[in-house]
Amino acid sequence: MNAREPAFVSASRSARLRQMLVSNELEFMMEAHNGLSARIVREAGFKAIWGSGLAISAQFGVRDNNEASWTQVVDNLEFMADASDLPILLDGDTGYGNFNNVRRLVRKLEQRGIAGVCIEDKQFPKTNSFINGEAQPLANIDEFCGKIKAGKDSQSDENFSIVARVEALIAGWGMDEALRRAEAYRRAGADAILIHSKLSRPDEILEFAREWAGRGPLVIVPTKYYSTPTEVFREAGISTVIWANHLIRAATSAMQAVAREIHSSETLVNVEDRVATVNEIFRLQDADEYSEAEDRYLSSGRSAGSAVVLAASRGKGLEAVTEDRPKVMLPIAGKPLLRWLVDAFKKQGVNDITVVGGYRADAIDTAGIKLVVNEKHAQTGELASLACALDGATLDKLAGDTLISYGDLLFRSYILRDLVESEAAFSVVVDSSLTDAENASVRDFAWCSAGDDRGLFGNKVVLRHVSSGKDASSSIAAQTPHGRWVGLLNVRGEGRERLQAVMRQLQARPDFASLDMPALLNALVEAGESIEVQYVHGHWRGVNDLEDFRRAGDFAHGQTPLAASVGNPAADAANGAAQ
Ligand code: SPV
Ligand code: MG
Fold first, then answer.
1. Which end of the chain has fewer CB atoms at under 10 Å, N or C?
2. Ligand 1: does its nearest atom lie under 6 Å from the Cβ of 162?
């Protein structure tokens, strides 16, 4: 990088294009024809883009005969200017009409951040110079000079460049005519002359450059005389070389080869490693920036990114209804329990949902989840299931914050919303209406730093202990609990790594296979983690036995939109079946 470059890069696009035209160095412009190719040109290291009329019309699938309207071209340029901060010199054909069209074109190009336009001295509608060039009528010199003057008079950015393209050599009018025209266009105000040739050798271009003798910047397009060493152009004092159509041609041959291959082989395996990855496309589209912006601007961007649902059990006390399915697939008011849960997660923006199945996992057919199976579900407990989700291949994919949930829950939506909005590394929901610890068959009682004083709503309360199958005799269990943990744990930010660390310690214990979720919560507390408690008072249901199952339909029905449940025979029938 030389010392001049930072200032160059911070200059406006039009100033950079002008600088390229007037500099003493030989400069290069690369063709682009849409946003993606404009991005690719920038990444390759070019300093400017040629907005080729041939390539832009070709990518639209039309001919280089002004078949695409000028506004369609300008709209396309807007995508290119957005995708790349390079200066763009538009190939503006003949200016799409008379002097008045050129004036309007210049104003519109300036508004879209285009650095300059090249207009050629042919007649509208033009034909590509390489198609029967001799037959192409040239513009009247005075009329073309009027266009240049009108364009220069209408620009509001002094650096906007107008390049005048001389087609006399293409049309076979000879060197003198080419020079006469170039001089007239220079006097009319053109910032540079593009001298075009269709010969396979550079002879007439070099002769023109000699005769021109540096009267102004010269631009060339060596599509036909491509074998000329670039050093020859440098020595001839050329200002800028345009590589005019090579990205559309590269894309065309790649697309033809890939389309043919896939069509004949009827498989993707032969091409997958030979084409850009989907991730490369995402990178070129700057998809990462979108994700960051989502975090910044979308409130749902703050919610938990993923969830693990523990759904391995058949359900004690539910044997009669779970012969062919796990508990989570029991129908509640017309849809499986797991569907209710998944829908509730999705409503909060939690879309990356891993369900750990076990008993009759084959019956879990809920859409929109990833299913992992705890093959040892019959001999192991909840933590072994959780480990299947955290240790497996899905770990990397558990994006952002993670919710861990029992699979047999129904709850009002605010409960989950408040939980995922918590700033705490760990937070749980505790129902303060359930404190009847004498019922020994019920576990998950919670002891906290303070009871649920609803007058002090918003006070920080942390978890001290949750009753587990393992600790019925612990000293804290003698005290009246503050409520019951409902089976929802939110792990935020760095909490995920700390949870993993505690999980690894527990996995080293000989009794790991029998540990349940309360054992994890208690181990986190013992490891010094602060687990924030969000108290609720009812508004949720667990499905632990037939009685719960029978009542769950009523609760679920209360969650459906009124219009969907009132007078909906299907919903009523399903609800009836569940009661
Ligand atoms: C273009 O790229 O559209 C040009 C250059 O005008 S050429 O096709 O060589 O005429
Ligand atoms: Mg063109």
1. N
2. no
| Mean pLDDT per 10-residue section of the chain, whose length is 579 residues | 52 98 98 98 98 98 98 98 98 98 98 98 96 94 98 98 98 98 98 98 98 98 98 98 98 98 97 96 95 78 75 85 91 91 90 92 91 92 90 53 92 91 93 72 85 77 86 67 94 90 93 93 95 93 85 79 50 38
Say what the pLDDT of residue 438 is. 57
Active site residue 85: no
Give residue 335's Cα distance to chain centre: 33
Domain 282-557 homologous superfamily, CATH: Spore Coat Polysaccharide Biosynthesis Protein SpsA; Chain A (3.90.550.10)
Residue of minimum CA distance from atom 2 in ligand 1: 52
Closest CA to 311 of 269, 254, 369, 261: 369
How many CA atoms, within 13 angstroms, populate the side-chain half-sphere of residue 274?
A: 11
Cis ω for the linkage preceding 125 (within 30 of 0): yes
Would you state the pLDDT for residue 563?
A: 58
Beta-bridge mates of residue 465: 447
- Does this model's pTM top 0.70? My answer is no
Alpha helices, DSSP H only, in 230-298? 230-235, 246-265, 278-284, 287-297
Domains 6-253 and 282-557 share a fold: no
pLDDT at residue number 561:
61
Classified by CATH at the fold level, domain 6-253 comes out as TIM Barrel (3.20.20)
Q: Which atom of ligand 1 is nearest to the CA of 223?
A: 9
Of the candidates 352, 345, 270, the one whose C-alpha atom is nearest the C-alpha of residue 305 is 352
pLDDT value of position 397: 46
At which residue do the structure tokens 């951040």 appear?
A: 113
| CB 17 near ligand 1, within 6 Å | no
Buried b (16+ CB within 10 A) or exposed e, 130-155: eeebeebebbeeeebbbbbbbbbebb
Our answer on whether the CB atom of 245 is closer than 6 Å to any ligand 1 atom is yes
Distance from Cα 124 to the centre of ligand 1, integer Å: 15
Alpha carbon 293 to chain centroid distance?
10
Please, are residues 306 and 345 in contact by the beta-carbon 8 Å criterion? no
**DSSP H or E segment with residue 6:** helix 5-10
Q: How far is the CA of 282 from the centre of ligand 2 (A)?
A: 31
**129 touches 197 (CB < 8 A):** no
Work out the burial of residue 284: count CB atoms within 10 Å of its CB; fewer than 13 is exposed, 13-18 middle, 19 or more buried: middle
Ligand that lies nearest to the alpha carbon of residue 246, given by its number in the listed order = 1
DSSP assignment of 395-438 equals GGG--SSEEEEESSEEE-HHHHHHHHH--SSEEEEEETT---TT
Q: What is the DSSP string of 14-31?
A: HHHHHHHHHSSS-EEEEE
